[in-house]
Amino acid sequence: MSDETQRPSQPRGPVDASLIPRYCGPATFARLPRLDEVDSAAVAVLGIPFDSGVSYRPGARFGPGHIRASSKLLRPYNPALDVSPFAVHQVADAGDLAVNPFDIQEALGTVEAEIARLRSAGSKVLTLGGDHTLALPILRAVSADRGPVAVLHFDAHLDTWDTYFGAPYTHGTPFRRASEEGLIDLERSMHIGIRGPLYGEQDLTADGVLGFQVVRSDDYENEGLQTVIDRMRRRLAGPDGAGGPVYVSVDIDVLDPAHAPGTGTPEAGGMTSRELLNTIRALVGTDVVGADVVEVAPPYDHAELTGVAAAHVAYELLSVLAVNAR
Ligand SMILES: N=C(N)NCCCC(=O)O
Ligand SMILES: [Zn+2]
Ligand SMILES: [Zn+2]
């Protein structure tokens, strides 16, 4: 009797690195199966190679491939959360979405439709970007069936600016548009890791009106990790403590350029990857409805530093989803 007939409901996991060397074979995230190789997936990892919304260095269109290539060393068991994220339920790589690099509005429509399609097939979606513009169409799709969601946004930047060159859909503006469109819960959303020069003081006041609280990068040093985690969990619980759906958006430039040089708009004074991974782990027990890891720009990376950091961030997000599903 084959394994499959004995255990028909067993999720198909990653390729075994003790049988097939890690550097062999097609690069799916964490060497997971492709979505078309499994019946269905509780979580789909979707690449979106799009960087037409960037204000500075381009290159995030190569992010999905780079994160996958940097994810080959991930192992199946996560001791930090005591979970095997690919054994609890089926996780699969949905490949790359082909989006129009010359027409941003059309690209946003393609992204929204694909996220909606995967979600209606029963998959939560972890998106590998791509630039931060992508958060807007993803939030449109998620809030279409979950209503306004809390946005937990890890980034050096607010990304609530209004326009660049008059353009409303850019990587610096997704969360202003999302707030204006009523996609986010104004009482439970938060940025973590904010730092660096702004256009003016009004950037921060406008951001508060749009529904965000701010944890600054320096707060990790001044208050400590546990205090930051407590603030995050209190904010996500909301004023009545009841909680609700949370969308997690991770711009890899939240990390210090020493930890993640491969990104388009780097800012000094950032978080360590250890701080970021530990903060994400503290999301166990919150209703994470989707997530992205964006702004990985491989042309500026060295030794896969940024790719490995992004792969681990994605792995911790998948681990949280697995613990929550258990
Ligand atoms: N979302 C990212 N990574 N960066 C936004 C920077 C916008 C600016 O150039 O002011
Ligand atoms: Zn950023
Ligand atoms: Zn961003």
From TrEMBL:
Superkingdom assignment: Bacteria
Pfam families hit by this protein: Arginase
Entry keywords, A to Z: Hydrolase, Metal-binding
Keyword Hydrolase included in the entry's annotation: yes
InterPro entries: Agmatinase-rel, Ureohydrolase, Ureohydrolase_dom_sf, Ureohydrolase_Mn_BS
Family: Belongs to the arginase family. Agmatinase subfamily.
Entry-linked NCBIfam families: agmatinase
PANTHER family found in the cross-reference section: ARGINASE/AGMATINASE, GUANIDINO ACID HYDROLASE, MITOCHONDRIAL
Protein name per UniProt: Agmatinase
